UniProtKB/TrEMBL annotation:
<dbReference type="GO" id="GO:0005829">
    <property type="term" value="C:cytosol"/>
</dbReference>
<dbReference type="GO" id="GO:0005634">
    <property type="term" value="C:nucleus"/>
</dbReference>
<dbReference type="InterPro" id="IPR002836">
    <property type="entry name" value="PDCD5-like"/>
</dbReference>
<protein>
    <submittedName>
        <fullName>Programmed cell death protein 5</fullName>
    </submittedName>
</protein>
<keyword id="KW-0175">Coiled coil</keyword>
<dbReference type="InterPro" id="IPR036883">
    <property type="entry name" value="PDCD5-like_sf"/>
</dbReference>
<dbReference type="GO" id="GO:0003677">
    <property type="term" value="F:DNA binding"/>
</dbReference>
<feature type="coiled-coil region">
    <location>
        <begin position="14"/>
        <end position="49"/>
    </location>
</feature>
<comment type="similarity">
    <text>Belongs to the PDCD5 family.</text>
</comment>
<dbReference type="Pfam" id="PF01984">
    <property type="entry name" value="dsDNA_bind"/>
</dbReference>
Amino acid sequence: MSDPELEAIRQQRLAQLQSQYKNNNAENKQAMEEKIQQMEDMRNSILSQVLDQSARARLNTLCLGKPEKGKMVEDMILSMAQRGQLPGKLGEKELISLLESVNQQTQRKTVVKFDRRRAALDSDDDL
């Protein structure tokens, strides 16, 4: 075989492999998106079974304002439901008490220290 023929075969094979990779990658991506959507649907159905309407509305409001905290509370409620720790549907009052307990656990204390001597010395030096 001459070099131009060999190069043409290589280019053809490379194009064929790239198209196969793109097709497989697109199929995998679509399958992952479907799986993620299915998981979200399952989460929402479990939450709607466990929470009453007012509690679900409050949780949605929390998710809009603080997504990371809302996700954490959702995960906590789902794990409690899977373990059977929830006797029935959670109402808004029970959800509020759960949120308060989460806030107490995750609350960070901030400490601010002022060095008044340094600030006083700096202001005297300017005069």
